[in-house]
Amino acid sequence: MDWFRYRFHCVWDLDAPPGAVFTALARPADYPRWWPQVREVTELGEDRGAARFGSVLPYELAVTARALRRDPEAGVLQVALHGDLEGWARWTVAPRGTGTRAVYDQEVEILRPLMRRLAVPCRPLFRANHAVMMRSGRRGLGRYLGSGHRI
Questions:
Q1: For 49, phi and psi rounded to 5 degrees?
Q2: Fewest CB within 10 angstroms: 9, 19, 32, 58, which?
Q3: Are 119 and 110 in contact (CB under 8 A)?
């Protein structure tokens, strides 16, 4: 097992149309408005940005992201990640009943030195921390879209 690599898969079922979900997810600069653990997003150009995020554990991660794919017809958003994490993250948005299913997949390697030193004993905590962050994001996006906020 490579203790520094993580693979995440999360499913968000939302009571909003796929177009609204895709549009919200395609605007990372707005993430801090609805996702408390995304502390800051700075646009660095049309297809690049920097973000700081953290959850329950007392650390923050900093990454830069570069768009790899933005396909509204296929419902796919994918970015390459660099910084404290190296790898990629992808949203896939599709209709589900009267709402939307948004699937998040991520494969990353931890590069932050302290997290690498703690990789073996803290792996379950790191995974739990990510799960808390994702649950909070799902709730936040649901509230954001349900509040009548214009996208």
A1: -160, 170
A2: 58
A3: yes
Residue ranges per structural domain of the chain = 5-146
What gap in Å lies between CA 12 and CA 130, rounded to an integer? 14
Q: HSE on the CB side for 136, CA within 13 Å?
A: 18
Per residue of the chain (151 residues), what is the pLDDT tens digit?
799 999 999 999 999 999 999 999 999 999 999 999 999 999 999 899 999 999 999 999 999 999 999 999 999 999 999 999 999 999 999 999 999 999 999 999 999 999 999 999 999 999 999 999 999 999 999 999 987 655 4
Q: How far apart are CA 149 and CA 69, in angstroms?
A: 26
DSSP reduced 3-state for 147: coil
CATH number of 5-146: 3.30.530.20
Cβ atoms within 10 Å, residue 146: 11
54-35-39-59 Cα dihedral, nearest 10 degrees: -10
SS (H, E, C) 5-68: EEEEEEEEEECCCHHHHHHHHCCHHHHHHHCCCEEEEEEEECCEEEEEECCCCCCCEEEEEEEE
